[in-house]
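Protein modeling request. Please complete all fields; requests missing the sequence field cannot be processed.
Requester role: graduate student
Desired output: 3D structure, token encoding
Chains: 1
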Amino acid sequence: MSELLNRRLNLLGERNNLPLLEQCLHGIERECLRVTADARLAQTPHPEELGSALTNDQITTDYSESLLEFITPALPDPTDTLASLDKIHRFAYSKLGNEFLWSPSMPCPLPAEEDIPIAYYGTSNIGQLKYVYRKGLALRYGKTMQCIAGIHYNFSLPEALWPALKQAEGFIGTDRDYQSDAYIALIRNFRRYSWLLMYLFGASPALDAGFLRGRSHQLEQFDAETLYLPYATSLRMSDLGYQSNAQAGLTPCYNNLDSYTDSLRKAVATPYAPYVEIGTHKDGEWVQLNTNILQIENEYYSNIRPKRVTYVGERPIQALVARGVQYVEVRLLDINPFLPVGIDLPQARFLDAFLLYCALQESPQFESSECDNCTSNFLSVVKEGRRPGLQLQRQGQAVDLKEWAAELLEKIAPVAALLDQNHESGPHSKALDDQFAKVKDASLTPSAKVLASMTEHKESFAQFSMRQSQTHAEYFRSEPLSAEDQTAFEDKARQSLLEQTETEKIEEGDFDLFVASYQASILAISN
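Delivered output (527 residues):
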């Protein structure tokens, strides 16, 4: 164990500091497609009974009108976070009629590109902005790719923890600077070790053959309707997923918050020739918000993001520049198609130990080639993670994946033990044991289980996914919410619809001016 990690663990293990670890916050966002009973994309509008996708803070849409997004509050106990996610699913199912929530990350058999509906948010300026942004995504990356779903895990350490560490380490600077630096250091370590999460939790080794729309690929045929790679863990996170030539040069290496926000600000303000050629309008209609590398900062696709809760009308970068990093958003998790809400408590417990390890372990600045190594390790694991004898690169040397994985888990063990000091049953250490078992035996990983289940039932990817979707639907529908919870969700949905109507009624001002001022808001902090 490194000296720094040991010192920090001892400090946090002191009686006065131990309760702080109970105040970590956990939030989950789960995306999922609405599908018909015959495993096709639902073409119906976002159900009004779920409220307004613009103003309901727990149920919205992501890219497509058919792509739901469920958002929990950030809570101290992940048990409560998962219970909240479960309730949102039960409420959704009470309003979905004969539609289903698609169980895995990779989409169902999709209609033609032009028939994938873009999410609509009404006639307000902010609603139109969200819609035009998605039109821009369709133009830049195609609609098919935007139908991939995932789980985002939001995690923060308590604000009171940082000053204690800062004081012990004699950091010169403000509490806010120390906190931001520490979160950026967490992100650097996350980049170094995130391949481990893909091995342990990747759950997309196969996809519907139609997804590739006839593009060339190196996948193998599982059956007439399914493509796969035999040792893949997460095709969702491979280069088959999100591809962008424009973003290729955009690789913030997280050496500090300033360099991260600067690289995104530049990208939002720098024209990209192919987008300039298209322009922002076609036949008098908006087709993209601007012709720059990114329309808005959230278009930058990364596995983890530093975040800060924004004020009304504030942009994510403005919040980070003004008030520093508040939490991280982990964005690489596949939906586990065997789990009703796509994630379970042991996975959340392990993620907490993993993220705390990344925060407390030494995190030197990236050397020139290290960023590239992180990326190539990650891509090797998503495509071939279960291949026996797979080698990764560590400090210029080849290392066996299983050997490195076991070493990392050993190093995370004291962090899990620290988290368990407040829990008699040792849930974090038990979750760690589950991961050791997967390292020893690759057949225990979700990606291996998906392929094993498809083989056993002689099913295509779509048939397997629909069977799981039906099993989960039954699980949620067989035990409806309490009357009290159902009423609370219905009230929230109604209230959100009223909020959207009010916004549309009172809003003044031209949309073109609204976009211009939105664009200017990023340029204002660029100078």
